[in-house]
Amino acid sequence: MKKPTVRTEIIRVNSKRPDYHIIRKASRLICNGEIVAFPTETVYGLGANALDPSSVSKIFKIKGRHSDNPLIVHIDDMNNLKKLVMEIPPSANKIINKFWPGPITLVFKKSESVPDITTGGLNTVAIRMPRNNVVLALIKMSGLPIAAPSANISGRPSPTKAKHVKDDLDGKIKLILDGGTAEIGIESTVIDVTQQIPIILRPGGISKESIENEIGKVRFHDSLLGLENSKHTKNRSPGMKYRHCSPNAQVILVEGPTNKARNKIIELTERLKIENKRVCVMTTSKSLKINAERIQYMGKRFETIGRNLFSNLREADSHKIDVILVQGIQHKKIGFAIMNRLKKAASKSIRV
Fold first, then answer.
1. Burial of 242 (0-12, 13-18, 19+ CB in 10 A)
2. E strand or H helix that includes residue 95
3. Nearest C-alpha neighbor of 235 from the set 114, 113, 149, 138
4. Cα separation of 94 and 105, whole Å?
5. What is the pLDDT of residues 268-293, one digit of tens each?
6. Cβ of 78: how many Cβ atoms within 10 Å?
7. Alpha carbon of 295 to those of 182, 280, 313, 341: distances in Å?
8. Taking Cα atoms as reference points, which of 287, 329, 286, 323 lies closest to residue 306?
9. CB–CB of 147/48 below 8 Å?
């Protein structure tokens, strides 16, 4: 017999002015140990009371998430932060003053109030103040910090629309707050501020260049530069250790100068068509003519590419695509974060 499932309710909520009664309904679920999916400016989150081990354990179970994969704790004011961490270094204050609320997560030494399950057993805690009014209102009304990874099955592309959450988690959670399409579309930058030179553990919505403009030198973790075997990397942040962002289709990433990359994609498409594969091409070249089942134009600007990235991967799956060929972009600014996600999703990368 199939296990009984819960009824998943989806409620549309105005992201600029969230309805009090809707937020109250969601906050009651959080306070009662339940899980709620909600919009943020990055991707949709799957939230629980960050201070209650029993509630947090439900997130891991629902997602099929590894227990050593830490969660990001979401807060709505600085008073919450002070209760969750041992200290706030000067570099952290500069980042907070410039970028919070916003798509950047800071890793601090944790206080005793944060349970080990929330931090994946680490002595540090990842904390973010989002800028989406729905989640800020939910945190405030709940009176609790909310632990939340992306609201999807682990390994799948992160959800940027309520529909994506429903596709993955229908029958597993009681409530999805539908705040429309996520503004940024890729997850937050994660930076470890416990080190003398802060270390970016996961690239995201705020670029390395923007952070350095505020606090001086920061560096990428070696694993992001291919200098360290990820199998031996301590999982200090979400997105470091495990493969994620992966659609059901095989993803092949093609990097190199525009013309060479386009020609390689055309060649691969022709070869795959001979093998009777259904092919989707994700490209920055609007004029590309190719015999594929789907062509998804990603845009030219990093912001547009990032906003649509996960949605495009999920869209390809909905058309029963076998192979997705993706044209790479420049590894600069937010492009570095986009390429990080594509490399996580790809089973094969080709440089031409």
1. middle
2. helix 90-99
3. 149
4. 13
5. 999 999 999 999 999 998 888 899 99
6. 13
7. 23, 6, 12, 20
8. 329
9. yes
Q: Exposed/middle/buried for 310, CB within 10 Å: 0-12, 13-18, 19+?
A: buried
| C-alpha torsion 28→31→33→39, nearest 10 | 70
The domain ranges of the chain are 9-183, 250-351
Q: Which two tokens stand for residue 191?
A: 């930076």
Quote the distance between the C-alpha of residue 276 and its chain's center: 33
Which amino acid is it at 184? I
**CATH number assigned to the domain covering 250-351:** 3.40.50.11030
pLDDT at position 303 is 95
pTM: 0.93
**Runs of H (alpha helix) within 275-333:** 302-318
**9-183 to CATH, choices 3.40.1280.10, 3.40.50.2000, 3.90.870.10, 3.40.640.10:** 3.90.870.10
Rounded Cα distance between 206 and 110, Å, is: 23
Q: Which residues pair with 42 in a beta bridge?
A: none
